[in-house]
Specification:
By secondary structure, the protein is α+β, with helices and mostly antiparallel strands. The chain has a single domain, classed as Glutaredoxin (3-Layer(aba) Sandwich). Helix content is about 40%, strand content about 20%. The strands form three sheets. The protein has a four-stranded mixed beta sheet. The protein has a two-stranded antiparallel ribbon with strand order 1-2. A two-stranded antiparallel sheet has the order 5-6. A hairpin with a 5-residue loop joins strand 5 and strand 6. The longest helix has 12 residues.
Length: about 190
């Protein structure tokens, strides 16, 4: 008696696995979970984190304002923040923390005040849509902000280049992208 291979909906089980892998971009198959490989761990004391960033020679701190139900946050994590080259680049230049815009967890803001994450997001930075990527210099000043998901990993890398190179001082990110595209680069 010949045994058939396990099937699910007419396709062999192995093909379903490949479909799943392709659909998620291989996010966790390669061990590149953004929770472990992109974001840094923190106790929520931002002045202390600024000090760590200075000691480590970073350009500053990147905060990703997010919420659990946000499909754009999930897309960024599954297709951009899971990429090893993105993780390496951003971790080289920034300490990176996630802020839950609905969170009640208390953090210490850049001024040393204790505040819930949701109040920090809304009251101090007017975050109403997610994700928001907020870049802070080593003094705790906001230098660049990007709302929404980027088109792809390359555009997110350009966002990093925009901040690391200090281009935010002379132009908007939209103009910066146009200049790069005119020079022949593609995001």
């Amino acid at each position: 008696m010949r045994r058939s291979r396990p099937r699910l909906g007419g396709l062999p089980l192995i093909l379903w696995g490949l479909v799943l892998l392709l659909a998620t971009g291989g996010a966790n198959a390669a061990g590149q979970d953004p929770g472990r490989s992109f974001f840094d761990q923190t106790f929520g004391d931002l002045p202390e984190e600024l000090e760590h960033a200075r000691e480590q020679g970073k350009k500053g701190i990147l905060l990703m304002f997010e919420m659990d139900e946000c499909p754009f946050c999930h897309r960024m994590k599954a297709t951009v923040l899971n990429q090893p080259e993105i993780q390496d680049y951003y971790r080289e230049h920034f300490l990176i923390f996630a802020i839950d815009v609905e969170g009640d967890v208390e953090i210490t803001d850049f001024s040393g005040n204790a505040v819930a994450q949701k109040d920090f997001a809304l009251n101090q930075f007017r975050v109403r849509a997610t994700p928001v990527f907020a870049f802070f210099d080593l003094e705790g000043s906001l230098v660049a902000r990007y709302t929404g998901a980027t088109r792809n990993a390359e555009e997110f890398r350009w966002l990093g280049d925009y901040v690391v190179g200090g281009e935010y001082r002379r132009t908007s990110f939209t103009n910066y992208k146009r200049e790069r595209e005119r020079a022949g680069a593609k995001p």
